[in-house]
Design a protein that fits this description.
The complex is a heterodimer of chains A (about 170) and B (about 675). Chain A contains six helices and two strands; from the N terminus they run αααααββα. With about 170 residues, chain A is mainly α. Chain B is of the alpha+beta class and about 675 residues long. Chain B folds into four domains: about 180 residues, no CATH class; about 200 residues, no CATH class; about 130 residues, no CATH class; about 110 residues, no CATH class. In chain B, strands 5, 6, 7, 8, 9 and 10 form a six-stranded antiparallel sheet that branches. The longest helix of chain B is centred in the middle third of the chain and has 33 residues. Classes of the chains: A mainly alpha (about 170), B alpha+beta (about 675). At the A-B interface, α2, α5, β2 and α6 of A face α13, α14 and β4 of B.
C-alpha cells in the first residue's frame, strides 16, 4: 500500500513537472513581444542598406521587416544574443554598432588610444624638460605678492630682437 | 540663355582665378608690384563673377527650367518659392557652386583691407585663396556642371552642357523635387552656415602659408587672421548647432547627434579649429608653440577639404547622402598635394618657429590650455579613425564593419569630463607661473558652491555617479566664472565708486575678448548639462493605442485624441495626430506629431510633436496608423531630461563668440602737459 502511494505521488510529481515545463514553453512561444522589447534589440543593430541609422529609428520597409524578424524570434523564445548572432551570421559584422573585439578589428580600438597616450607622453616629457630648463636658468624673479614670475627684461628684449630679425628677412 | 550666362561666368571665374595665381607669383618673384596688384584685382573680381552664376542657377530653379539636369533633380513645380531658392544647395552640383561662391565672397573681401603694411604677404594670400577657389570652380566646370542639360539621341537620354551631335533637347514637364528631409526651415540656414565655416577657415590658412613662405614668422599673421578665424569658428559652430537642432526636429529618432560620418566630417575641422584658437592664445601671450599653431591651421584647412570630400565623393554612406558623385579621386589628389606642399613649407621654417620661452609651471594658464588642446586632438583622432576604419577594414580584410555611437561615446565622455576640470582651473590660472597653493586659495569658495550642483543632481533624481560628478563640475565651472567676474566687478566698483551694474558692464566692455571667452565656456557647460540629461537619462517607449488610449513614459503620459489625414497645396499628404500631454492627471498641452508624404519624390518625413520645458522634453513620433481597420496608431515616445539646456547653452556659446569677435575698447590716449 505504502509503495503504491509512493508510486502515485512520484507519477503525479512527474506529470505536474512536465505540465509546468510544457506550459512555460507554450507561454514563451505564445507571448507577443512588446515594441519596447523589439526596439531594445533593434537599437543595437544596423541594416546594411540604411548605413549609420540604427534599426529602431529607421523607417524603411527593409528595416520594418528586420524588426518583424526580431519580434518573431523573441516570440519563439530567442535571447538577445541569439538574435544578434543570427543577424551577424546572415549579413556579417557590419550589422553590429561596433566592430567585435577580435582579429584586425582591435586596430580600431588600439590606434586612438596609442596616439592619445603618445600625446600625453610627449607633453609630459616636454613639461619636464621645460621645467628643468626653467629651474636652471638664472634671473627669474618671483613676485612674492602675486606669485607671478616676471619674464626678465633680457628675455623680452631677445624676443623682440628675434621678431625684428625675422621681419628683416622679408 | 540663363544657363549660358551662368556657365560662361563660371568659366571666366576659372580663368581669372588661374590668372590671379600666375600674376601673383610672377609679380612677387620679379618684384613687380603692378602684377601683384593686378592679381589682387582678379581676386576682387571672382565674387561678382560667381554671383552671376549663382543668380543664373537661382533663376533657372525659380522659373522651373527642368531641361537643366540640376533643376530637374532638386526642384518641382509644387515647391514653394523659398524652397526653390534653397534647392541651390540641395544637391551635388549646386552645393559645390554655392561653396565656391561663398569662398569667392571671402577671398574678394580680403582684398578690401589696407595692405600697405603687410604687402609682402599679399601675393601668397592671393595664391593660396585663388588656388583653392580654382580647384572648386574646376570641379563645377568639368565634373559637376550645374548648367548641364538633358538631350536625346539615338541611344537614349544624355546629359551635357553643349548640344551633342544628332541630339535634340528635351524638356521634362516636372522635376523630382527636393529631398523631403531638406524641406525644413532649418535647412535654409544649416548648410550655408556649415559652408561659411568651412570656407572662412581657408583665409587664416592662406595668411599662415603666406607667413611661412615669406619667413615672417612673428605673430602678425595671427593678428591679421584672428577675426577670420573667429568668424569661421562662429559659422562652423552655428552650422553644427543648427544641424543638431534640425536632426532633433526632423530626423525623428529622439536625438540630435548620431555620429554619422558627415556629422563627424563637420566636427573634425571644428575640433582642430578650436584647438588652433586655444594654441593661438599661448602664442600671443607667451610666444610659445608657434610650430603647433601652424600644424593646427594646416590640419584645419585639410580637414575642411577632407570634410567636403567625404560629403561629396560618395566614399561614405551617410544620412547626408543627398549629394554624391565620382569626384573622389581628384579630391584625393588635391588633398595629398596640399598636405605635401604645406608640410614641406612648414619644414623649411621649422627652426624659425622655435621659441626660447619655456613652461614654468604645471598650473600655469599655458600648461592647462595645452592640455585642453591635447584633449581636443584626442577626440579628433578618435573621430578620424572611427570614420576611416570601415574603409580600412574593407581594404585589409574584405569585411565591412560599422563604427557607431558606442565607439565614440566611450572616448568623448571621459574627455568631456577632462575638459570640464580644465575649465574649472583655467580661468583662475595665470600666465607664466601659478602654484597649486595659489590656485587653492582662489578655488575653495567656488568649490563650496559647486557642491550645490552635485546636491541638485541627486535631488533631481540624476543619481548615476557619472551624472553627479558632471553636475558637480558644471556647478564648479559656473561658480568659478561668476566669482571671477564678481571679484573684478567689485574691484572696479571699489576703485571708481560706481554702481554694481555700471562696473559689471564696464569690466565686460573693456575686455570683450576675454569675457567673450568666459561666456563661450559658460555656454559649453550649459550644453554639457543638456548632453548629460539626454545621453544618460533618456527613456522611451513605443506602443499601438486606439483613439482615446494612453501611453506613459517618465512622469508624463499621452492620450491619442484623433488623427487627421489631408492633402496640402504644396504636394504633401499629411497624417497629423492630435495628442494630449498629461502630467499628474492634468492635460497640460496639445501636440501634433505628424508624417508628411511628398508625392513628387515619393518619400515620407516624420515631424515629432514636442513639449519642451527647462526640466525635460516630452517627444512624440507618429510611427504608423491603422485608422480604417483598427482605429489605432503607433507612437514612439521619448522623455529627454534637460535637453533644452543644450539649445540654451548653444545660443549662449554663440553670443560669447560674437562678443569675442568685437574689437576690445581701447583706452583713449592720455595727453600729459609739461609744466
Amino acid at each position: 500500500m505504502k509503495i503504491r502511494i509512493k508510486r502515485l505521488f512520484r507519477t503525479m510529481f512527474t506529470v505536474i513537472t512536465l505540465l509546468m515545463i510544457f506550459a512555460s514553453v507554450a507561454a514563451a512561444q505564445g507571448s507577443d513581444p512588446t515594441d519596447d522589447e523589439v526596439n531594445a534589440i533593434a537599437k543595437q543593430l544596423y541594416c546594411p542598406v540604411c548605413e549609420n541609422v540604427p534599426l529602431d529609428a529607421c523607417g524603411t520597409a527593409a528595416c520594418e521587416q528586420w524588426r518583424g524578424i526580431i519580434r518573431a524570434k523573441l516570440a519563439e523564445g530567442w535571447t538577445d544574443q541569439q538574435i544578434k548572432t543570427y543577424f551577424v551570421n546572415q549579413y556579417g559584422d557590419r550589422v553590429l554598432a561596433e566592430p567585435p573585439r577580435q582579429g584586425f578589428n582591435w586596430v580600431v580600438y588600439i590606434v586612438p588610444l596609442v596616439v592619445f597616450l603618445g600625446g600625453i607622453f610627449l607633453l609630459f616629457r616636454g613639461f619636464q624638460t621645460w621645467l628643468a630648463a626653467n629651474q636652471e636658468s638664472p634671473g627669474k624673479r618671483k613676485n612674492s605678492r602675486t606669485g607671478i614670475t616676471k619674464a626678465p627684461s633680457e628675455e623680452y628684449k631677445q624676443r623682440v630682437e628675434e621678431d625684428l630679425k625675422n621681419r628683416k628677412k622679408l | 540663355m540663363a544657363a549660358d550666362v551662368g556657365f560662361g561666368s563660371l568659366l571666366i571665374t576659372l580663368i581669372v582665378s588661374i590668372y590671379g595665381v600666375v600674376a601673383a607669383i610672377y609679380g612677387e618673384r620679379n618684384k613687380k608690384i603692378e602684377w601683384v596688384l593686378s592679381a589682387k584685382r582678379a581676386m576682387a573680381l571672382v565674387f561678382p563673377l560667381l554671383t552671376i552664376s549663382i543668380l543664373s542657377i537661382i533663376y533657372l530653379l525659380v522659373t522651373d527650367h527642368f531641361e537643366v539636369v540640376y533643376v530637374s533633380e532638386v526642384s518641382s513645380r509644387t515647391m514653394p518659392l523659398y524652397l526653390k531658392i534653397t534647392a541651390l544647395w540641395g544637391g551635388q552640383a549646386g552645393s559645390l557652386l554655392f561653396w565656391s561662391w561663398l569662398l569667392a565672397g571671402f577671398t574678394s573681401a580680403v582684398t578690401l583691407r589696407k595692405w600697405e603694411r603687410d604687402q609682402e604677404l599679399l601675393p601668397w594670400v592671393i595664391v593660396v585663396s585663388l588656388l583653392t577657389l580654382a580647384f572648386f570652380v574646376l570641379l563645377s566646370v568639368f565634373f559637376e556642371n550645374p548648367f548641364a542639360q538633358y538631350w536625346q539621341d539615338a541611344n537614349g537620354i544624355i546629359t551635357s552642357f553643349s548640344q551633342p551631335p544628332n541630339a535634340i533637347p528635351i524638356f521634362p514637364r516636372d522635376g523630382s523635387g527636393l529631398n523631403p528631409l531638406l524641406r525644413h526651415p532649418g535647412m535654409i540656414i544649416h548648410p550655408p552656415m556649415q559652408y561659411l565655416g568651412f570656407v572662412a577657415f581657408i583665409i587664416p590658412f592662406a595668411y599662415a602659408m603666406a607667413s611661412l613662405i615669406t619667413g615672417r614668422t612673428d605673430d602678425r599673421w595671427i593678428q591679421l587672421s584672428r577675426r577670420w578665424t573667429l568668424w569661421a569658428w562662429l559659422f562652423l559652430s552655428l552650422g553644427l548647432i543648427l544641424g543638431a537642432r534640425w536632426a532633433y526636429d526632423v530626423l525623428g529618432w529622439g536625438g540630435y547627434w548620431g555620429w554619422d560620418p558627415v556629422e563627424i566630417s563637420a566636427l573634425m575641422p571644428w575640433l582642430s579649429g578650436t584647438a588652433f584658437l586655444h594654441a593661438v592664445l599661448i602664442q600671443e601671450k607667451r610666444g610659445m608653440f608657434k610650430q603647433l599653431t601652424m600644424v593646427l591651421i594646416i590640419l584645419t584647412y585639410n580637414l575642411v577639404i577632407f570634410g567636403t570630400f567625404l560629403t561629396r565623393s560618395g566614399l561614405l554612406s551617410s544620412v547626408h547622402s543627398f549629394a554624391q558623385s565620382t569626384i573622389g579621386p581628384i579630391f584625393l589628389v588635391f588633398i595629398a598635394l596640399t598636405i605635401i606642399v604645406s608640410i614641406w613649407i612648414l619644414n623649411l621654417r621649422w627652426n624659425d618657429l622655435k621659441s626660447r620661452q619655456v613652461l614654468t609651471s604645471y598650473f600655469s594658464k599655458e600648461a592647462l590650455i595645452i592640455i585642453s588642446v591635447l584633449l581636443f586632438l584626442g577626440v579628433l583622432v578618435t573621430s578620424f579613425w572611427g570614420v576611416m576604419f570601415p574603409k580600412i577594414s574593407e581594404l585589409v580584410t574584405g569585411q565591412k564593419v560599422t563604427v557607431g555611437p558606442p565607439f565614440y561615446e566611450r572616448v568623448t565622455g571621459p574627455i568631456l569630463g577632462g575638459m570640464l576640470i580644465i575649465m574649472v582651473i583655467c580661468p583662475l590660472a595665470v600666465w607664466g607661473y601659478a602654484s597649486f597653493k595659489h590656485l587653492g586659495r582662489l578655488l575653495w569658495k567656488p568649490f563650496i558652491f559647486s557642491l550645490g550642483g552635485a546636491a541638485l543632481a541627486i535631488y533631481g533624481g540624476f543619481t548615476r555617479w557619472e551624472a553627479v560628478i558632471a553636475f558637480w563640475l558644471i556647478g564648479f565651472v559656473l561658480a568659478v566664472n561668476v566669482f571671477e567676474l564678481a571679484r573684478r566687478t567689485n574691484l572696479r566698483k571699489r576703485n571708481e565708486e560706481a554702481t554694481w551694474l555700471s562696473s559689471l558692464l564696464h569690466v565686460i566692455h573693456k575686455n570683450r575678448r576675454s569675457y567673450g571667452a568666459m561666456i563661450v565656456h559658460i555656454g559649453v557647460v550649459l550644453m554639457a548639462l543638456g548632453i548629460i540629461g539626454i545621453e544618460l537619462f533618456q527613456t522611451e517607449t513605443q506602443g499601438t493605442i486606439p483613439t482615446g488610449g494612453e501611453l506613459s513614459v517618465g512622469s508624463y503620459s499621452m492620450t491619442f485624441d484623433r488623427l487627421d489625414v489631408f492633402d496640402t497645396d504644396d504636394g504633401r499628404n499629411v497624417a497629423r495626430a492630435v495628442v494630449s500631454v498629461v502630467k499628474d492627471g492634468q492635460v497640460i498641452e496639445e501636440i501634433y506629431p505628424r508624417r508628411d508624404f511628398f508625392y513628387d519624390s515619393g518619400q515620407p518625413m516624420t515631424i515629432p510633436g514636442v513639449r519642451s520645458t527647462l526640466v525635460d522634453d516630452f517627444y512624440v513620433i507618429l510611427v504608423d496608423w491603422k485608422m480604417v481597420t483598427s482605429d489605432s496608431a503607433t507612437f514612439k515616445v521619448y522623455h529627454n531630461p534637460l535637453v533644452k539646456w543644450l539649445w540654451i547653452g548653444a545660443w549662449v556659446f554663440i553670443l560669447g563668440v560674437v562678443i569675442g569677435t568685437l574689437r576690445d575698447k581701447e583706452n583713449k590716449p592720455v595727453t600729459v602737459r609739461s609744466k
